[in-house]
Amino acid sequence: MSTVPRKGIKATKPLVPEPATIIDVIVETPSIRSFRLVFDDPGIMKEFSFAPGQIGLMGIPGVGESTFAISSPPSRRDYIQFSVMKTGFVTSAIHELKAGDAVALRAPLGCGFPVDNWKGKNILIAGGGIGMAPLRSLLLYILDHRHQFGDISVFYGARTPADLCFVGDRAHWEEREDIAFIATIDSGQPGWDGRTGVLPRVMEAGRPPAENTVAVICGPPVMIGYALAALARLGFAEGQIFTTLERKMKCGIGLCGRCNVGSKYVCTDGPVFSLADLGNEI
Amino acid sequence: MRFIPEENITALLLRLSENATVWAPQVVRDTVNTVLFAPWREGAEIETGLYSALPVKGLVLPATERLFSFRYHRAGEREKIEIEVDELRERAAVFAARACDAKALVTLDALFLDGSGRSYNDQHYRARRGALTVITLACTSCDSACFCSSFEDGAAATAGSDLIFYPVSGGFLAEAVSATGRELAALDLFQESNLEKPPLAETAKVELARLGQRLLDKFDDIDFWRRTAEGCLSCGYCSYACPACHCFNIFDEMESDRAGGRYRCWDACMFYAYTLESSGHNPRPEAAHRYRNRLAHKFSYFPLNRGEFLCTGCGRCIRGCPAGRDVRDVIKALGAG
Fold this sequence. Notes:
The complex is a heterodimer of chains A (about 280) and B (about 325).
Chain A: E1 18-27, E2 32-39, H1 42-47, E3 55-60, E4 64-69, E5 80-85, H2 89-95, E6 102-109, E7 122-128, H3 132-144, E8 152-158, H4 167-175, E9 180-185, E10 195-196, H5 199-205, E11 213-218, H6 221-233, E12 241-244, E13 260-261, E14 264-265, E15 272-274, H7 275-278
Parallel strand pairs in A: 7-8, 7-11, 8-9, 9-10, 11-12
Antiparallel strand pairs in A: 1-2, 1-6, 2-5, 3-4, 3-6, 12-15, 13-14
Helix pairs in contact in A: 5-6
Chain B: E1 2-5, H1 9-17, E2 21-27, E3 35-39, E4 64-75, E5 78-84, E6 92-97, H2 99-112, H3 123-130, E7 132-137, E8 163-168, E9 171-176, H4 179-185, E10 191-192, H5 211-217, H6 222-229, H7 237-241, E11 248-254, E12 259-266, H8 287-306, H9 316-319, H10 327-333
Parallel strand pairs in B: 2-6, 6-7, 7-8
Antiparallel strand pairs in B: 1-9, 1-10, 2-3, 4-5, 4-12, 8-9, 11-12
């Protein structure tokens, strides 16, 4: 894990965001919207690069800023996407934003998925709810570099069909023959002819082989707990399991103190961790 | 060594005042013997017998500071944001800082100034720190809360100071630590002296050997931490008063319909809301979790990450705790090194 990615952030003004503009808003679910934005300074936009899994602090000056995973892939050069669940003060204000509105952004921050170390490996992706946001960036990156990886299986779970994000992507992922994509909802609903059952159980039933496989999971704490237990039963070692953590953050640069998990800061050492990195501190 | 007679101190402070605000420990009016570093003006009495309730860190990391101001304006169809970062130009000098406070500035420097890439080079911190002169008054006595002798150098620490004053008969011996200190000590207010440095204070000591590991060994014993944090009010004084604590919050304030500022202010890891997430989840919901994290940060995580303790033994968190908590008792309870 590198602790010094920090591209894109001015070293001497790390807490000062760059003005940006929303160019598109996608209503994903009743509580989740994706916001596509561009930096107002075309030079910054041109230079902007990141790894899937990296985060940004997007905000509205006067309201505040919050941390979000970038949900677009690095190959997308014309916008940066964040998928935001309406939860608190800042995210409620963000949900009011429309195309053309001004925001301010500090990104990219943190360390992304170590995709270079995963070349030649099978990748198992399991995302629950809004936890799919960073995994979308990862999956699209993998699809952009499909030949570098082995088998790709993707499990995406949500409570109800209406809670599943990324409608357009899902249709595409389901059609592709070079990945196995399964969406599941927690319990049966009229009009839903897909899989039913909580994500860890559906994933375990698929019996993904642990050998030469990296498992990447992200979702609510309950799902993570069950998914970890399922992966252990499937024979995955701690070093094979990666997750991306969320904590309350203010600075995003390892100084303000609140996002630590043991001696590590989620904002700079993470948000991507292998289970081996975290030990019992999770 | 250089020597400055007591009667020249006012002249020295006036000299410093020519291009800087001079901060010196003073009893704050309307309080009961509360000493704070406050701007000094000629005639103001400097109080060095009592310890200041707050350290000098506020001169480099103010309790509240504006990071930038912003303004919304219309550009054609669109709303745009303009951001402007304040340039800081004020110089400051602190007189009669203590070695424990000055040493903590070096700890903060490593976090906020390090250009090596391990930390950010914080623009505001850099401006304030570069414009700060630190004159330290060495401690020849201490109180029962002091425990700096537990750490390397103890009361003899010179790190972070530009000039150190040692109280001797009739004035102070002056030891220059930095170029700024040497310039000051060369002023005609000082003279040469053969006097010996006075013996410095020997404070109470706590055993710090293997403390980080001892703490982690007890980490999962939540009942231990519940007993330890019992009575803690989660008031945050210990963080505010700590010369090395540097946690902060960031918040926005509108100053008109279309303009405002983003501010950084001190925060405290003992506050419930410090880690409270908007979902309602709180990774450190009890005072016991927060107290454990606070101590682990100071004595385990920080040494692991940065090679030093996040504590200089100044004793403020003991002296000023409204619930009478004493960090040294916890260190002792963690067992022998």
